[in-house]
Each structure stands twice: as structure tokens, then as C-alpha cells.
Design a protein that fits this description.
The protein is mainly β. Helices cover 4% and strands 41% of the residues.
Length: 288
């Protein structure tokens, strides 16, 4: 099926230094009682349907509330989001707020986000949930800390589960002077997902991009590119050879790399149909 093209990139908060705290059954004012581990962060930012929490443990009646805090390494422009649960209970509330001056997730000033197309909380664990339930998020500015509160209600026995949390957007301009950007051939940053559209089985498609050293005065040395999906390959040539990783010796300040090709190879029928996602991870050995 065709999916709406996403004009944003998913934020890789599970590997970029973001820390996530939470409490169970309390309000923001009660503060953070525990923190998610690296493995839990990876689990809630993937495309699967695994469960992080059982929200109510089969209790009868009443409401259950949870709060989560996302402390990003720098201010982020949050453009869209997608949360997944399986609710026997009804969703009473889903609230998202941002702050740039909080020190602990409770103090400071906060702005409440607006959801122009409805609450970004899906409740069906179909394989394509992460692609079809993305909803826009509207803030007046960028924020370094995001907190979420959601509340469920039930009038009968039944378990409710929290599963996933995706954010779409980018770092606020100027927050990371020494950075590597994924760009088009003309040097303009790619701000959307690299979408391959609907593809017939047994076909191959090749696209390309360049890396830009956004630093004005420092060389990026030992640049490594890693692609973590077996259906995709990287190469410096349109003819291959194709590999999961590439190394670039250095990229000068405010300069582009050579063109990097990415191939999507689909096998012959029958395949497991549905959307898929690969992640391109870029690391820099040193800035000099």
C-alpha cells in the first residue's frame, strides 16, 4: 500500500545521548522515580511491537497515569511523533510539553504542544503502525527537554500496554557547530526520510547522498558510515561493491564528501510484505 511521505527524520534518541526518566501513577510534580536503560530506549524506538510496560495489571475501574521525560543533548525541533499502545482502557489524556530552562523536569517554564491532526497515539499493533500513525506536533520553538503525560481509564478488567515512542525532527540550528550532515548532491541537508516508495519484489533501486562537514574550522577525521539493514548496501560507486560500512579518511571544514550510493535489493517472491526501515549511523573519529 502507498504510505504518506514523511517530511521529517526520526530522532535516534536511543543512541544520541538522550536520557529518559519516568514515573508510574503520578503527576509531573512527583518527579522522576526511575530511568530507562539503553536496551529499553532501543526497544521503544524501533519498529517492532514489543511491550515496555503493562499499565494497569488487570485492575478494575479507575485511571492509570504515566509521565515520561526526554532530556536531549541539545535543543530539538519536534515536528511529528508516534506513540504505540494497546489499550483495553480508554485514552483520557495525552499531553506533550517542552522546556529549555528546567533543571529536573519539574521546575522551569513549559509549553504544551498542539496536535493539528489529533493525538499521536496509535492502538493497533499492525506491522505498519510506525508508518501510518505519525502525527504532526506543533511547538512555538525548539526545546531541549520534552515531557509526556498519558492517562488511561477502564470500567472493567483488562490489561493495557505501552509499547513505543517515536519523535521526528532535527537538532536546532547552531546547536552542534561540529557536526556531519546527510545532504543532497548540492549540499542542502536532507530533512526528510529517504523514502523508497512502493517496490515490486525482485527489483533493485539505487539512490545517493553526500556527507557535509558542518564545522567552519575543524576537520572531521576517521568518518565511519554504518548501515544496519540487510536489504541495503553502501558503496562509493554506482556499480558496487556493496557493503554495510564505509570509511572516509577526512572531510575538510564546510566541505562535502564524495557521492555515496545506497542500494535497496529486494529478493524474488515470496517476501514478507510491509514497510521496513534502515538506519545509517555516522561517527567521527576526531575533530582537529
Amino acid at each position: 500500500m502507498p504510505y504518506q511521505e514523511l517530511n521529517h527524520r526520526r530522532i535516534p534518541y536511543d543512541i544520541d545521548g538522550t536520557v529518559v526518566g519516568y514515573n508510574i501513577g503520578q503527576d509531573y510534580a512527583k518527579g522522576i522515580t526511575d530511568w530507562l536503560s539503553e536496551s529499553q530506549l532501543s526497544a521503544i524506538n524501533d519498529e517492532g511491537t514489543s511491550t515496555l510496560w503493562k499499565s494497569n495489571e488487570g485492575s478494575y475501574g479507575g485511571s492509570v497515569q504515566r509521565c515520561m521525560w526526554f532530556f536531549f543533548p541539545e535543543a530539538r525541533e519536534i515536528e511529528a511523533s508516534n506513540w504505540l499502545g494497546s489499550w483495553v482502557r480508554s485514552l483520557l489524556r495525552f499531553e506533550m510539553q517542552g522546556s529549555n530552562d528546567t533543571t529536573n523536569g519539574m521546575d522551569g517554564t513549559w509549553e504544551t504542544a498542539v496536535f493539528p491532526s489529533g493525538t499521536p497515539m496509535g492502538s493497533h499493533t499492525v506491522p505498519s503502525w510506525w508508518r501510518i500513525y505519525v502525527k504532526p506536533v506543533s511547538f512555538s520553538t525548539t526545546y531541549k527537554t520534552i515531557r509526556i503525560k498519558f492517562e488511561l481509564y477502564s470500567s472493567y478488567d483488562g490489561d493495557s500496554y505501552f509499547r513505543k515512542a517515536h519523535f521526528y525532527g532535527r537538532k536546532a540550528y547552531g546547536q552542534t557547530p561540529d557536526d556531519i550532515l546527510i545532504c543532497n548532491a548540492d549540499g542542502n541537508e536532507k530533512t526528510a526520510l529517504l523514502d523508497w516508495g512502493d517496490r515490486p519484489e525482485g527489483t533493485t533501486m539505487i539512490k545517493s547522498f553526500k556527507l557535509k562537514n558542518a564545522s567552519s574550522n575543524r576537520i572531521a577525521s576517521g568518518v565511519n558510515i554504518q548501515l544496519n539493514h540487510g536489504d541495503f548496501g553502501l558503496s562509493f560507486s554506482e556499480d558496487g561493491p556493496w557493503t554495510a560500512t564505509l570509511d572516509i579518511t577526512s572531510i575538510a571544514p564546510d566541505n562535502l564528501s564524495a557521492r555515496i550510493y545506497i542500494r535497496n535489493l529486494l529478493g524474488a517472491p515470496p517476501l514478507i510484505l510491509g514497510p521496513k526501515a534502515g538506519r545509517c549511523i555516522i561517527t567521527v573519529g576526531s575533530w582537529t
